[in-house]
């Protein structure tokens, strides 16, 4: 089991993971991801920006996480716990449904938090869908503080909740 940066040769497997997750969420009545998001183009951008990491077991990518310093425009109005200086943002944390429930999402978040700590980041910021209670519990158990709501109208009429975990003050 290892986590390393994904490259373009991983694209099909990465796409398979996010599409399987989208389908799985929809089957649970959670309309967080869909056929338009996350797209192949979004993943190609993540690869080009060298901000997507893969969790691989032998030759199979079982999960992925995007770790970036870039703040989405939707986040600009959020009253974060820390000032906007040396913050990391998590996007597209996904574990293929066949591999869920085995602690792989925890491993990916452990990796992101260790990366933040080792590289002197002040906090980790993320958002999760308001209709996805499991994700909210996941982040709250990891001591992420729920802040305010933002909206991604192309994804859902429902809000996404912003969370932040302070690493360094």
Task: Describe this protein's structure.
It is a single chain. The chain is an alpha+beta fold and 169 residues long. It has one domain: 3-Layer(aba) Sandwich (Aminopeptidase), CATH 3.40.630. The protein is built from 4 helices and 7 strands. It has a 7-stranded mixed β-sheet, sandwiched between helices. The radius of gyration is 15 Å and the shape is globular.
Question: Top keywords for this entry?
Answer:
single chain; 4 helices; 7 strands; 30% helix
What is the beta-strand fraction? 25-35%
Tally of distinct domains = 1
Query: What is the CATH class name?
Result: Alpha Beta
CATH topology: Aminopeptidase
Total helical elements: 4
Task: Give a short synopsis of this structure.
The chain is an alpha+beta fold and about 170 residues long. The chain is built from four helices and seven strands, in the order E-H-H-E-E-E-H-E-H-E-E. It has one domain: Gcn5-related N-acetyltransferase (GNAT) (Aminopeptidase).
Helix-strand blueprint:
Elements: E1 2-5, H1 11-27, H2 40-48, E2 52-57, E3 60-68, E4 87-95, H3 104-118, E5 123-129, H4 133-141, E6 145-150, E7 160-166
Parallel strand pairs: 4-5
Antiparallel strand pairs: 1-2, 2-3, 3-4, 5-7, 6-7
């Amino acid at each position: 089991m290892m986590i390393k940066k994904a490259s373009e040769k991983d694209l099909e497997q990465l796409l398979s993971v996010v599409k399987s997750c989208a389908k799985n969420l929809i089957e649970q009545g959670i309309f967080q991801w869909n056929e338009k998001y996350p797209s192949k183009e979004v993943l190609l951008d993540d690869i080009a920006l060298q901000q997507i990491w893969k969790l691989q077991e032998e030759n199979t990518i079982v999960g992925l996480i995007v770790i970036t310093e870039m703040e989405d425009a939707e986040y600009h109005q959020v009253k974060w716990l820390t000032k906007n200086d040396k913050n990391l943002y998590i996007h597209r944390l996904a574990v293929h449904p066949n591999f869920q429930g085995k602690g792989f999402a925890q491993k990916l978040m452990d990796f992101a938090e260790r990366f933040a700590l080792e590289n002197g980041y002040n906090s980790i910021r993320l958002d999760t869908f308001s209709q996805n209670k499991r994700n909210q519990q996941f982040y709250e158990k990891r001591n992420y503080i729920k802040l305010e709501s933002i909206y991604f109208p192309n994804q859902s009429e429902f809000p996404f909740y912003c969370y932040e975990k302070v690493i360094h003050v």
